[in-house]
Batch of 2 targets.
Target 1
Amino acid sequence: MDGQLNLVEQPEMYRLKKAFERAKERVAETIPPMQGEKFVKPLMVERKSGRRVYISAPGEFKTTWVSEKYLSRLTRVLREELKEDLELVVEPRLNEQSGSEGCYPDGIYHSISYVTEEVGSRYTFDSFVVGDSNRVAYQGALAVASRSKDAPNPLFIYGGTGLGKTHLLRAIEGEWKRSRMSGCRYVTAQQFSHEFIEGARGNGLDDFRRSFQTIRVLLVDDVEFLEEKKKSQEELFFRFNEFYESGRQLVFCSDRSPRDLRGLPARLRTRLESGLVADIRLPELEMRQEIVRRRAEEQGVSLDPEVCLVLAESAPNNVRTLEGILNTVIMHARVGGRFVDRDLVREVIEQKFGSSGRGSVTAEAVLRMVAHHFGFDVEDIKGPCRRQDLVLARHLTIYIIREHLGESWKRIGQRLGGRDHTSIIHGFRKMKQLLNVDHEARACYQDIKRELSWA
Ligand code: ADP
Ligand code: MG
């Protein structure tokens, strides 16, 4: 391991590794090729201790998968190959381990996309459509941006995915920069945590902390990421106090209210909700029409009100999805030399979501697709079994249905064999966290989306 080859051990390791390669091949032949390629092929022998052979898989997601699905088969075949009574243990590969704080390897971390969107982009207050569902959040953000005396501090904005939280933070940042003021910083919670950990690891902690001293407005996005991340929470808590005591501005965004961020300590939660807590709810139909109209206009397309309506009706739960549909429509029109009319919109919506739109059939399609992808029956996913690999598949199903179809927690619970809504929320959060840190899980999610023609 450390370059000091143990001459006694070396031949044994060599034999073991060779045998394991053969075992992998033999097992891979018995399962669908895609799964062999994805799960079995990347496995590696790490070390041996007594009769235990430790193998590694890239990422926690695959580790769970392998241990549930293939480990006993691999063990059996390896025993045959070596005629030894060995035991296999699978672990996430050290330099690719993910999922717990403090061990983000560079490779994985870089595959996580922090927001890198340039300021000065289209995330402005002008381009933000205001309605009852987001007025309070909008006004709070505007007050911060215009440095009004009674700007709420801290301002905490929460709401579902794709409803404009990041847009508002970026709008504050943009406004600040436009007036040539320095000292406004946007950071995602991931970035905050990553920089903090990196700093703590080397000798950069002082630099990290000092970098906040010149900041007058700190915007922290996706705070939910810090749940269960004890050290980073504590750091944020200290930065919070520093800002607050010196009268500097803080703005936070999250998918839940401070109260519901159960993975944060109470003292931080109470700080977060000590100013204005503003939620963003689902936009009304008129707002969605207006968003569509403006987005099209920005691209030089003027839409018929009727077409706007059809588009707005197609994605009630997520403005990002709505924009995606609009962009696809515009692209099709350009490429095919067609007008943007009802027919074209319907075609695109059908292509994206299947002929019956985003109704109940589509959630069933998600279930079938996830089941198919992992080689389960739909009934297994709906059923009570708590085997780790099934639980993962179940959580992914919940995540996709919620994120893309926007079904209520309750409805998803009914779909999945009558589960309680709290367990659905729990599953959603678990998957969300996993997707944040485990690129294997993300790859899986992307694959399924692609198979559903959503990506
Ligand atoms: P969130 O951070 O809440 O997940 P974003 O701020 O990234 O969502 O918004 C997703 C997309 O929807 C962005 O392109 C954003 O500009 C757009 N959007 C969301 N809400 C509005 C709104 N009220 N008016 C205009 N565009 C919006
Ligand atoms: Mg966001």
Target 2
Amino acid sequence: MQYIKVDNGTSIAQTAVDMIVQAIQQKPHCVLGLATGSTPIATYKELIKRYEQGNVDFSQVTTFNLDEYYGLAASHPQSYHTYMYHHLFKHINIKKQNIHILDGTTKQIEKHCEQYENKIKACGGIDLQLLGIGRNGHIGFNEPAEQLQPRTHLARLSKETVQANSRFFTNKKDVPQYAITMGVRTILAAKKIVLLAEGHDKAEIIEKLFQTGITTDIPASFLRLHHDVTVIVDERAGSKVNTAAKELR
Ligand code: GLP
């Protein structure tokens, strides 16, 4: 895994956006896998800035989001649909038909998940997958468990994740307990993966990511099986990684 430590959140965003813009410039019809959470917000802001400066064109880009809360309609203020339109899509020239986000209200979960996988394949696979990381090592909503699911599926959120997500909901009882998420194999099928981590909260899990083996207790550790992963951290998230090396295995 390629490890890049930068000063702060702004530098994380600039580094990530350099990689995203390069991917789009090399392949204007590229397929991006997108993440939510607080970490990528600065990255989306920087992407909008580059778009407004005329440095990037999204007219041929296709996107697939990692996950969506189960039980929330697209129009819900805390849905990932709302998040993506608010933080990115409504500000850029992406075509609506090229945006793919899982439907949190589907009644036919298995069919919907299978169709999502098929759509990704039909678009030629994900060229660049952006990821955040949960404090417990989850990616998308693949939570630590005895077994991980390879494909897109309905996932029960861990207590820790529900607790972490509750900061976005006024009423604690409204915090979703389930989500639909790409599976670990779906994520690993991306040609390139860029994982962002910011803040002290993430220091421990980033340390574990590099210092423990591959384990379902840390779903992100499966990224070590992939040949092209870049982990971008700020000083705080990287404070426990005891190496200056750029290439960590
Ligand atoms: C949610 C998302 C993940 C994200 C994680 C971390 O659980 N499903 O994709 O990586 O939050 O979020 P944050 O960046 O807010 O710490």
